[in-house]
Amino acid sequence: MGNTTVTEKKEMRDVVRATGTQGGLHIGDGPLTSALTREGSDGLLMSEVEERITRIRPMSTPIDQITRMTGSRTARSMEVSYYRVDSKPESAMLEECTEIAGKEYDGCAVYRIKTTDDTLFAPTETILIPDMSGEPEGTDTTQNPLVLYVTERVNGSDGVELHVIAVNGVKQDGLRRIGETEGGESLVRMGRAASELDVQTGQFQALPKKASNYCQIFKAQIEHSTVMNLTKKEVGWCMEDQEESAVTDMRLGMEKSFLFGSKARLSNKRTGDETLLTGGIWTQAGKTVKLEKDLSHSGLIKLMRAAFTGESAGSTRKILLAGSGLIERLSNLESVRTLSAQDKVTRWGIDFTEIGSKFGTLYTIHSEVFDMCGHSEDGMIVDPDYITKYSFMPFGVEHLDLKSSGIRNSDALVLTEASCVVLRHPQAHIRVVCV
Questions:
Q1: Which residue of 102, 168, 276, 376 has the fewest CB atoms within a 10 Å radius of its CB?
Q2: What is the rounded average pLDDT for all residues in the chain?
């Protein structure tokens, strides 16, 4: 990351080092220098190379820009394994409901129910059926949604059986009953309800799903001949100008791979070499929302709801990367102004247009990569809190001595990075497709 000066070396000798309770480095009797920072927390300071990269056309490569600004994780292998954040489903559908013999609970009939996912519900949990009415205690009116209580879950001949009672069922023959069902009603999982003497409850385990991606080696080479360096030019055009142009092109290629790349491992039988291709986040996203091409105010509200509620709930501020066609339709919506003021906001060195709603806020930006890759009418909503970049080889510059090796009379630089981008909570990210 840089060379340590003589002064820094002296300061490093004079200071007192101590190890913290969590293994961190504590400095005493001296100032905190960059050299000590590198010693105690390597990678904390962004290198000069990274700082320069983030200043080169950030608007063209938003995914690469954001992941560089937020910092990447170090990968110790070209194949990155990570765990996707997962959550237990919130609802299932009712398929069958049959009354059975049982008087464990006074005043309540016992039912055996079958759902689309019987393993979702556990004993002592309550279940809400929004489409059915219940009779609250102390009244004779059916004004509340029906609530069930899971008394037990047993292994029957047809698999798992759920036994439930209707907490606020309609009273018939002195018992609270569920009533007539047609099937297909939504069952919403609610909180557990333990008795006074209960010490334990059903166990709950949530295991994240393991996934993997490959770090792709991205490269660019710049050469400037010795004759070119010595020749007088009408305008200043030096090695640094070529380097900036190469970085721009390289980042644009990386952005395309990070978005739409296909994960693959290629083996060359003739040379024995192996090439890894990274998978893009477009296919990693866990949800797709379809918009009509004649986008309306209600369609935009529908998109907002899908992006910020249910399984997609995450940050209240997300990023909408959109092709030019989708941006055009959003711009033509006069009703957007009533949805919220379209203010400019700058984050991660990128200028976004802000679209707000009562569901959440979208930072919107036109992505030229969507246009280049055939998705000009589409977009993608990304949650910046659940996107991670892994770097096996951070962005680096290597000088090639082509003169001494007798290859060419030129100065050469090779830019290299091996990295990938992953989504840790797929449901928080949405593909927006126009139909």
A1: 102
A2: 77
